[in-house]
Design goal:
The protein contains 5 helices and 7 strands; from the N terminus they run ααααββαβββββ. By secondary structure, the chain is of the alpha+beta class. α3 packs antiparallel against α4. The longest helix is centred in the N-terminal third of the chain and has 15 residues. The two termini are 15 Å apart.
Length: 147
Amino acid sequence: MKVPGFAAVVGSTLLLLTSLAHASNPKLPPDLAKAAADYDQAQVHSDRAGLEKALADDWVLANSAGKTQTRQEFITESVAPGSSVEPYTVQDETIRVWGDGATLAGLVDYKGKSEGKPFQVRIRFVDVWRKKDGRWQVVYTQAARVP
């Protein structure tokens, strides 16, 4: 079964909607909580504009298949017809924030469709966020499959 790169993400990102967890998480600055929640929503809703806003131009994903994807490759795959991601909850969450940087990490059971075919995968991810010019963006994501 082909697991799409976007399924390997996660990202930053997080949900039952993790947006709910981030929005109320006292460990996150309010502007980062909003950026993370918006990113989560963009993934679930295949929202090109939301993904473009959340991901830095030089963003790279090291996905669970051991490949890297650029921002454009990820967005194109994420919004392709027949691709979708179901809302997910982040487990085993780890958050670190410093100055203009942060890591948001955790474990997710990721479900959705790729090319119209269902997939399900458990992923441990790390999203690295940077605040630049007053705006938080994901600059790097690493995802690994968990048996």
